[in-house]
Write a structure and sequence with these properties.
alpha+beta; 6-stranded mixed beta sheet; 2 domains; Alpha-1-antitrypsin, domain 1; about 400 residues; Antithrombin, Chain I, domain 2
């Protein structure tokens, strides 16, 4: 039996990965519909092992790793993810004929990581698209790169998460009469009663934890109506700490929290467990993100600079990151949650491209306005995928 994630990653590793996710989301003007900091994290480690000087220092600081841990992390992370029934993770490198990879650098990469680019853009695109689809179980069908531009080297990660709810939801249709979703017409809603202590609250936000199979939880965070989306996401990330907030079981009948009401009803049997009635919405969300816009938050400022990037331990020729992109998709349904992210960094010989001149008792909780979500690995608290639900799915005509 292989090493599990909780044995492969230290508490410091988890904190570093989650800090990267928090800093990245906080740096963006708007929270993406779907994004994965975990998709970026191992690529920063791989890059750092091939960088020198200030370029390496910036990458290590962003990843929250020291040089030795950066060298060991990708292989340890891949081996541990291989033992998870709900998580798949892959990392790969493809090099073209115009760059000569340092053999010491490639020797430190996980086994079967390195492939070749032919220089035929359509053929290379087809091969890398197939890799993305295979390693995300078909959720992401294309590598998020522009193959019309010169590419000499590609580093990519593929992450997928799939879990079924321990307590499935019931599919419903609902029209919202008040709030920002009023006027949308019939929407796809979900309802379930959970007999567990899964609801926590603070003065400014409420967080629901939905247990799934395979050691996956999905957290939904609802803030006060006046709370900015970034503040709601911050509360959701804070709630990865089990000590955050208070349990809704502490609320008395008639008391309220953000989005929460507590009432009582009569039944023949005696109550044995906490009851949480959940009213939420189904969503299918996709984002295509240009990570060069987030270079400062992700430690890629120098790596993307064709004059200052230093990857002397990666390739013989001077190279820099010319494209940094992520495609992410998340589906929340009555049966479960699934998400995938492909993160790709294209590198080019320094003189191959002109420098860019721009950067692109029963508590009922009701999610009836925009909210944040986050999928985590339950035993470690590692954040896998997160995003913002701006609107529910419209109901399909009957």
């Amino acid at each position: 039996m292989g090493t599990t994630l909780q044995h492969a990653l230290t508490a410091a590793d988890i904190a570093a990965a989650n800090t990267l996710t928090r800093r990245w989301l906080a740096s963006r003007t708007e929270i993406p519909a779907a994004a994965s900091g975990l998709g970026v994290w191992p690529l920063l480690a791989v890059l750092a092992t091939g960088a020198v000087g200030e370029t390496r220092d910036e990458l290590l600081a962003a990843a929250g790793l020291d040089p030795a841990r950066a060298a060991a992390l990708p292989e340890a992370l891949l081996a541990a993810a291989a033992t998870s029934p709900a998580i798949r993770l892959a990392v790969a490198v493809w090099a073209g004929a115009r760059v000569t990879l340092d053999p010491d650098w490639t020797a430190g990469l996980p086994v079967d990581t390195v492939g070749s680019l032919t220089g035929d853009a359509p053929a290379d695109k087809a091969a890398l698209d197939a890799w993305a689809a295979r390693h995300t179980q078909g959720l992401i069908e294309e590598m998020p790169l522009d193959f019309a531009a010169p590419i000499d080297l590609v580093l990519a990660s593929a992450l997928s998460v799939r879990t079924d709810w321990k307590t499935p939801f019931q599919d419903l249709q609902r029209s919202f009469t008040t709030g920002p979703w009023s006027g949308l017409g019939p929407c796809r809603a979900l309802s379930a009663t959970l007999r567990e202590d899964v609801l926590r609250f603070a003065d400014h936000a409420t967080v629901l934890t939905l247990p799934g199979n395979g050691d996956i939880d999905v957290l939904l965070g609802l803030g006060r109506p006046d709370l900015a989306p970034h503040a709601v996401m911050d509360a959701l990330l804070d709630a990865l700490d089990p000590a955050w907030g208070r349990s809704a079981t502490e609320l008395a009948v008639g008391e309220r929290a953000v989005g929460v009401e507590v009432a009582e009803y009569l039944t023949a049997g005696r109550q044995r467990d906490p009851e949480t009635q959940v009213e939420t919405v189904r969503f299918t969300l996709e984002s295509d993100l240009d990570l060069s816009e987030d270079a400062a938050a992700l430690g890629l400022t120098l790596a993307c600079d064709d004059d200052r990037a230093r990857f002397d331990r990666l390739a013989t020729e001077p190279v820099h990151i010319s494209q940094a992109k992520q495609s992410c998709k998340a589906i929340f349904s009555a049966k479960g949650f699934e998400a995938a992210a492909v993160t790709a960094l294209a590198m080019t010989r320094a003189a191959a491209l002109p420098k860019p001149n721009h950067r692109h008792v029963r508590a009922t909780v009701t999610f009836d306005r925009p909210f944040a979500y986050l999928a985590r690995h339950r035993p470690t608290g590692l954040a896998l995928v997160a995003g913002w639900v701006a609107q529910p799915e419209p109901a399909t005509p009957r």
